Amino acid sequence: MILVTGATGSIGTPLVRALLSRGAPVKAMVRDQEKGRALGCATVVGDFDDPASLVPAMEGVDRLFLNAGGAQPADGAQPMIRQQKAAIDAARAAGVSRVVKVSVWHARRGGRLAEGAHWEIEEYLKASGPAWTMLQPSGFMQNFLTGAGAFTVGGRLVDAYGGAPVSYVDCDDIAACAAALLTGPHGLGETYVLTGPQALTYAEIAREISAVLGRTVGQVQLPPDELAAALREKGVPARFADDVAELSRQVATGSLAATTTAVRDLTGRSPRTFGEFLAANAEALRSSLFSTVS
Ligand SMILES: NC(=O)c1ccc[n+]([C@@H]2O[C@H](COP(=O)([O-])OP(=O)(O)OC[C@H]3O[C@@H](n4cnc5c(N)ncnc54)[C@H](OP(=O)(O)O)[C@@H]3O)[C@@H](O)[C@H]2O)c1
Protein backbone atom coordinates (compact mmCIF):
# COMPACT_ATOMS: atom_id res chain seq x y z
CA MET A 1 0.00 0.00 0.00
CA ILE A 2 1.27 3.47 -0.93
CA LEU A 3 0.34 6.37 1.37
CA VAL A 4 0.18 9.78 -0.35
CA THR A 5 0.48 12.76 2.00
CA GLY A 6 -0.33 16.28 0.79
CA ALA A 7 -2.84 14.39 -1.37
CA THR A 8 -5.11 17.40 -1.93
CA GLY A 9 -2.14 19.56 -3.02
CA SER A 10 -0.48 20.47 -6.32
CA ILE A 11 1.62 17.30 -6.53
CA GLY A 12 -0.46 14.89 -4.44
CA THR A 13 -3.63 15.19 -6.52
CA PRO A 14 -2.03 14.25 -9.88
CA LEU A 15 0.06 11.62 -8.05
CA VAL A 16 -3.06 9.85 -6.75
CA ARG A 17 -4.44 9.93 -10.31
CA ALA A 18 -1.21 8.53 -11.74
CA LEU A 19 -1.02 5.74 -9.15
CA LEU A 20 -4.66 4.75 -9.69
CA SER A 21 -4.11 4.61 -13.44
CA ARG A 22 -1.21 2.21 -12.84
CA GLY A 23 -3.49 0.03 -10.71
CA ALA A 24 -1.32 0.62 -7.64
CA PRO A 25 -2.85 0.23 -4.16
CA VAL A 26 -3.10 3.79 -2.85
CA LYS A 27 -4.40 5.52 0.26
CA ALA A 28 -4.51 9.31 0.62
CA MET A 29 -3.86 11.03 3.92
CA VAL A 30 -6.13 14.08 4.19
CA ARG A 31 -7.01 16.53 6.91
CA ASP A 32 -10.57 16.96 5.68
CA GLN A 33 -12.37 13.77 4.68
CA GLU A 34 -14.90 15.70 2.60
CA LYS A 35 -12.12 17.31 0.55
CA GLY A 36 -10.45 13.93 0.15
CA ARG A 37 -13.56 12.33 -1.34
CA ALA A 38 -12.88 13.99 -4.70
CA LEU A 39 -9.61 12.05 -5.00
CA GLY A 40 -11.46 8.83 -5.80
CA CYS A 41 -9.29 6.58 -3.64
CA ALA A 42 -9.23 5.26 -0.07
CA THR A 43 -8.55 8.03 2.42
CA VAL A 44 -7.40 8.25 6.00
CA VAL A 45 -7.61 11.35 8.15
CA GLY A 46 -4.21 12.49 9.40
CA ASP A 47 -2.50 15.72 10.35
CA PHE A 48 1.26 16.21 10.63
CA ASP A 49 0.55 18.42 13.65
CA ASP A 50 -1.15 15.52 15.42
CA PRO A 51 1.45 12.70 15.62
CA ALA A 52 -1.13 10.30 17.10
CA SER A 53 -3.16 10.57 13.88
CA LEU A 54 -0.14 9.41 11.87
CA VAL A 55 -0.15 5.97 13.52
CA PRO A 56 -3.42 4.71 11.96
CA ALA A 57 -2.53 6.54 8.74
CA MET A 58 0.63 4.41 8.34
CA GLU A 59 -1.10 1.11 9.09
CA GLY A 60 -0.48 -1.41 6.30
CA VAL A 61 1.66 1.09 4.40
CA ASP A 62 4.78 -0.09 2.58
CA ARG A 63 5.70 3.06 0.63
CA LEU A 64 5.25 6.67 1.66
CA PHE A 65 5.07 9.82 -0.45
CA LEU A 66 6.10 12.59 1.93
CA ASN A 67 5.01 16.10 1.02
CA ALA A 68 3.10 19.05 2.40
CA GLY A 69 2.83 22.75 1.88
CA GLY A 70 4.99 24.81 4.19
CA ALA A 71 2.99 27.25 6.32
CA GLN A 72 4.44 30.76 6.41
CA PRO A 73 6.41 30.90 9.66
CA ALA A 74 5.97 34.03 11.77
CA ASP A 75 9.29 33.71 13.56
CA GLY A 76 11.47 32.02 10.98
CA ALA A 77 10.96 28.56 12.50
CA GLN A 78 9.76 26.09 9.87
CA PRO A 79 6.89 23.92 11.18
CA MET A 80 7.58 21.59 8.27
CA ILE A 81 10.67 20.24 10.07
CA ARG A 82 8.73 19.08 13.12
CA GLN A 83 5.82 17.88 10.98
CA GLN A 84 7.83 15.77 8.54
CA LYS A 85 10.08 14.34 11.26
CA ALA A 86 6.91 13.13 13.01
CA ALA A 87 5.79 11.46 9.77
CA ILE A 88 9.20 9.81 9.34
CA ASP A 89 9.06 8.51 12.92
CA ALA A 90 5.58 7.08 12.33
CA ALA A 91 6.69 5.51 9.04
CA ARG A 92 9.68 3.84 10.66
CA ALA A 93 7.55 2.53 13.53
CA ALA A 94 5.03 1.12 11.04
CA GLY A 95 7.74 -0.69 9.07
CA VAL A 96 7.44 1.44 5.91
CA SER A 97 10.20 0.25 3.59
CA ARG A 98 10.52 3.22 1.27
CA VAL A 99 9.97 6.99 1.41
CA VAL A 100 9.88 9.33 -1.59
CA LYS A 101 10.20 12.88 -0.30
CA VAL A 102 9.56 16.21 -1.99
CA SER A 103 12.41 18.51 -1.05
CA VAL A 104 13.72 21.58 -2.87
CA TRP A 105 16.60 22.31 -5.23
CA HIS A 106 19.66 23.57 -3.27
CA ALA A 107 18.44 22.11 0.03
CA ARG A 108 21.42 22.74 2.26
CA ARG A 109 22.51 23.36 5.82
CA GLY A 110 21.78 26.96 6.77
CA GLY A 111 19.70 27.58 3.62
CA ARG A 112 16.93 30.17 3.89
CA LEU A 113 13.26 29.18 4.23
CA ALA A 114 12.47 25.80 2.66
CA GLU A 115 16.09 25.18 1.60
CA GLY A 116 17.34 24.86 5.18
CA ALA A 117 14.19 23.09 6.41
CA HIS A 118 14.27 20.44 3.70
CA TRP A 119 17.98 19.84 4.27
CA GLU A 120 17.28 19.08 7.92
CA ILE A 121 14.42 16.72 7.03
CA GLU A 122 16.51 15.02 4.33
CA GLU A 123 19.28 14.32 6.86
CA TYR A 124 16.75 12.95 9.36
CA LEU A 125 15.20 10.69 6.73
CA LYS A 126 18.59 9.41 5.53
CA ALA A 127 19.44 8.35 9.09
CA SER A 128 16.04 6.89 9.90
CA GLY A 129 16.02 3.45 8.28
CA PRO A 130 13.57 3.23 5.37
CA ALA A 131 15.05 3.45 1.85
CA TRP A 132 14.74 6.99 0.56
CA THR A 133 14.55 9.02 -2.63
CA MET A 134 14.68 12.82 -2.67
CA LEU A 135 12.93 14.91 -5.31
CA GLN A 136 14.44 18.39 -5.48
CA PRO A 137 12.25 20.47 -7.80
CA SER A 138 12.99 23.85 -9.32
CA GLY A 139 10.24 26.49 -8.97
CA PHE A 140 6.73 25.19 -9.61
CA MET A 141 4.83 26.40 -12.69
CA GLN A 142 1.78 26.13 -10.40
CA ASN A 143 3.09 29.15 -8.45
CA PHE A 144 1.55 31.21 -11.24
CA LEU A 145 -1.86 29.72 -10.39
CA THR A 146 -1.64 29.68 -6.61
CA GLY A 147 0.18 32.99 -6.25
CA ALA A 148 2.80 31.34 -4.03
CA GLY A 149 6.04 33.07 -4.81
CA ALA A 150 4.54 35.05 -7.71
CA PHE A 151 3.84 38.66 -6.82
CA THR A 152 2.28 41.54 -8.70
CA VAL A 153 2.51 45.30 -8.45
CA GLY A 154 -0.30 47.18 -10.13
CA GLY A 155 -1.22 44.07 -12.10
CA ARG A 156 2.31 43.57 -13.39
CA LEU A 157 4.38 40.49 -12.52
CA VAL A 158 7.23 41.28 -10.18
CA ASP A 159 10.68 40.18 -11.28
CA ALA A 160 12.95 40.26 -8.25
CA TYR A 161 15.46 38.02 -10.05
CA GLY A 162 17.05 40.80 -12.10
CA GLY A 163 16.09 39.14 -15.38
CA ALA A 164 17.63 35.76 -14.47
CA PRO A 165 15.72 32.77 -15.87
CA VAL A 166 14.19 29.89 -13.88
CA SER A 167 13.63 26.35 -15.16
CA TYR A 168 10.08 26.06 -13.75
CA VAL A 169 8.67 22.52 -13.55
CA ASP A 170 5.03 21.38 -13.75
CA CYS A 171 3.79 19.61 -10.59
CA ASP A 172 2.18 17.00 -12.87
CA ASP A 173 5.70 16.06 -13.97
CA ILE A 174 6.89 15.86 -10.35
CA ALA A 175 3.90 13.59 -9.67
CA ALA A 176 4.77 11.42 -12.68
CA CYS A 177 8.33 11.01 -11.38
CA ALA A 178 7.02 10.10 -7.92
CA ALA A 179 4.59 7.57 -9.40
CA ALA A 180 7.41 5.87 -11.31
CA LEU A 181 9.57 5.73 -8.18
CA LEU A 182 6.79 4.53 -5.87
CA THR A 183 5.82 1.68 -8.19
CA GLY A 184 9.28 0.58 -9.31
CA PRO A 185 12.56 -0.59 -7.84
CA HIS A 186 14.83 2.26 -8.97
CA GLY A 187 16.04 5.45 -7.35
CA LEU A 188 16.95 4.06 -3.93
CA GLY A 189 19.32 6.46 -2.18
CA GLU A 190 19.12 8.89 -5.13
CA THR A 191 18.43 12.62 -5.24
CA TYR A 192 16.84 13.99 -8.40
CA VAL A 193 16.78 17.68 -9.36
CA LEU A 194 13.55 18.09 -11.33
CA THR A 195 13.24 20.95 -13.82
CA GLY A 196 11.16 21.89 -16.80
CA PRO A 197 12.65 21.72 -20.31
CA GLN A 198 13.71 25.38 -20.48
CA ALA A 199 14.53 28.32 -18.23
CA LEU A 200 12.37 31.41 -18.65
CA THR A 201 12.77 35.03 -17.58
CA TYR A 202 9.85 36.98 -16.16
CA ALA A 203 9.69 38.95 -19.41
CA GLU A 204 9.19 35.68 -21.32
CA ILE A 205 6.68 34.41 -18.74
CA ALA A 206 4.67 37.65 -18.94
CA ARG A 207 4.56 37.31 -22.75
CA GLU A 208 3.35 33.70 -22.55
CA ILE A 209 0.70 34.52 -19.94
CA SER A 210 -0.46 37.51 -22.01
CA ALA A 211 -0.88 35.28 -25.06
CA VAL A 212 -3.08 32.82 -23.13
CA LEU A 213 -5.16 35.51 -21.40
CA GLY A 214 -5.55 37.60 -24.57
CA ARG A 215 -4.48 40.77 -22.73
CA THR A 216 -1.14 42.24 -21.88
CA VAL A 217 0.28 41.28 -18.50
CA GLY A 218 3.35 43.41 -17.91
CA GLN A 219 6.28 42.78 -15.66
CA VAL A 220 8.30 45.07 -13.50
CA GLN A 221 11.76 44.69 -12.00
CA LEU A 222 11.82 45.09 -8.23
CA PRO A 223 15.17 44.75 -6.44
CA PRO A 224 15.00 42.14 -3.64
CA ASP A 225 15.28 44.77 -0.89
CA GLU A 226 12.32 46.69 -2.30
CA LEU A 227 10.30 43.47 -2.56
CA ALA A 228 11.10 42.73 1.09
CA ALA A 229 10.03 46.24 2.10
CA ALA A 230 6.77 45.90 0.16
CA LEU A 231 6.08 42.53 1.80
CA ARG A 232 6.77 43.95 5.28
CA GLU A 233 4.36 46.78 4.57
CA LYS A 234 1.74 44.15 3.73
CA GLY A 235 2.24 42.65 7.19
CA VAL A 236 4.55 39.80 6.21
CA PRO A 237 6.89 38.99 9.14
CA ALA A 238 10.21 40.81 8.70
CA ARG A 239 12.36 37.69 8.88
CA PHE A 240 10.28 35.93 6.24
CA ALA A 241 10.42 39.00 3.96
CA ASP A 242 14.21 39.16 4.38
CA ASP A 243 14.55 35.47 3.56
CA VAL A 244 12.46 35.96 0.39
CA ALA A 245 14.84 38.79 -0.57
CA GLU A 246 17.90 36.64 0.06
CA LEU A 247 16.49 33.77 -2.00
CA SER A 248 15.69 36.24 -4.79
CA ARG A 249 19.31 37.43 -4.76
CA GLN A 250 20.45 33.83 -5.18
CA VAL A 251 18.04 33.19 -8.05
CA ALA A 252 19.32 36.40 -9.67
CA THR A 253 22.75 34.72 -9.88
CA GLY A 254 21.19 31.98 -12.02
CA SER A 255 20.84 29.37 -9.26
CA LEU A 256 17.59 27.97 -10.76
CA ALA A 257 18.52 28.41 -14.42
CA ALA A 258 19.93 25.00 -15.32
CA THR A 259 17.81 22.20 -16.72
CA THR A 260 18.20 18.49 -15.98
CA THR A 261 17.09 15.31 -17.77
CA ALA A 262 15.63 13.78 -14.58
CA VAL A 263 11.94 14.02 -15.60
CA ARG A 264 12.67 12.32 -18.92
CA ASP A 265 14.94 9.76 -17.25
CA LEU A 266 12.27 8.79 -14.70
CA THR A 267 9.13 8.99 -16.86
CA GLY A 268 10.40 8.30 -20.38
CA ARG A 269 8.84 11.52 -21.72
CA SER A 270 9.76 15.18 -21.95
CA PRO A 271 8.71 17.55 -19.19
CA ARG A 272 5.94 19.98 -20.03
CA THR A 273 6.87 23.37 -21.43
CA PHE A 274 5.51 26.49 -19.74
CA GLY A 275 3.32 27.08 -22.79
CA GLU A 276 1.83 23.57 -22.52
CA PHE A 277 1.24 24.11 -18.81
CA LEU A 278 -0.56 27.42 -19.45
CA ALA A 279 -2.70 25.93 -22.22
CA ALA A 280 -3.77 23.09 -19.92
CA ASN A 281 -4.59 25.52 -17.09
CA ALA A 282 -5.98 28.52 -18.96
CA GLU A 283 -9.22 28.61 -16.96
CA ALA A 284 -7.44 28.42 -13.61
CA LEU A 285 -4.99 31.09 -14.78
CA ARG A 286 -7.86 33.48 -15.50
CA SER A 287 -9.06 33.24 -11.91
CA SER A 288 -5.62 33.02 -10.33
CA LEU A 289 -4.92 35.48 -7.57
CA PHE A 290 -1.30 36.51 -7.50
CA SER A 291 -0.10 37.97 -4.23
CA THR A 292 -0.40 41.69 -4.90
CA VAL A 293 2.31 43.54 -3.03
CA SER A 294 1.20 47.06 -3.92
N1 LIG B 1 6.38 26.24 -4.73
C1 LIG B 1 7.57 25.99 -5.24
O1 LIG B 1 8.03 26.62 -6.20
C2 LIG B 1 8.41 24.88 -4.63
C3 LIG B 1 9.61 24.53 -5.25
C4 LIG B 1 10.36 23.47 -4.73
C5 LIG B 1 9.91 22.77 -3.61
N2 LIG B 1 8.73 23.15 -3.02
C6 LIG B 1 8.27 22.36 -1.86
O2 LIG B 1 7.13 21.63 -2.27
C7 LIG B 1 6.35 21.30 -1.13
C8 LIG B 1 4.88 21.46 -1.47
O3 LIG B 1 4.58 22.82 -1.57
P1 LIG B 1 3.16 23.43 -2.03
O4 LIG B 1 3.07 24.75 -1.37
O5 LIG B 1 3.01 23.33 -3.50
O6 LIG B 1 2.11 22.54 -1.35
P2 LIG B 1 1.11 21.44 -1.92
O7 LIG B 1 1.80 20.33 -2.60
O8 LIG B 1 0.01 22.11 -2.66
O9 LIG B 1 0.69 20.86 -0.51
C9 LIG B 1 -0.32 21.27 0.30
C10 LIG B 1 -0.81 19.95 0.86
O10 LIG B 1 -0.28 19.75 2.17
C11 LIG B 1 -1.36 19.41 3.03
N3 LIG B 1 -1.05 19.81 4.39
C12 LIG B 1 -0.73 21.06 4.81
N4 LIG B 1 -0.54 21.06 6.15
C13 LIG B 1 -0.73 19.78 6.57
C14 LIG B 1 -0.70 19.16 7.84
N5 LIG B 1 -0.43 19.84 8.96
N6 LIG B 1 -0.95 17.83 7.90
C15 LIG B 1 -1.25 17.13 6.79
N7 LIG B 1 -1.31 17.67 5.55
C16 LIG B 1 -1.06 18.99 5.44
C17 LIG B 1 -2.53 20.18 2.43
O11 LIG B 1 -3.73 19.65 2.89
P3 LIG B 1 -5.10 20.52 2.98
O12 LIG B 1 -5.81 20.31 1.67
O13 LIG B 1 -5.81 19.93 4.13
O14 LIG B 1 -4.69 21.95 3.19
C18 LIG B 1 -2.30 19.93 0.95
O15 LIG B 1 -2.73 18.65 0.55
C19 LIG B 1 6.87 22.18 0.03
O16 LIG B 1 7.61 21.37 0.91
C20 LIG B 1 7.80 23.17 -0.67
O17 LIG B 1 8.88 23.55 0.15
C21 LIG B 1 7.97 24.17 -3.51
Automatic annotation (TrEMBL):
Residues 2-250 form the NmrA-like domain. InterPro entries: Ergot_Alk_Oxidoreductase, NAD(P)-bd_dom_sf, NmrA-like. It holds the Pfam family NmrA. It comes from the Bacteria. It comes from Streptosporangium brasiliense. This is Uncharacterized protein YbjT (DUF2867 family). PANTHER family: PRESTALK A DIFFERENTIATION PROTEIN A, PTHR43162.
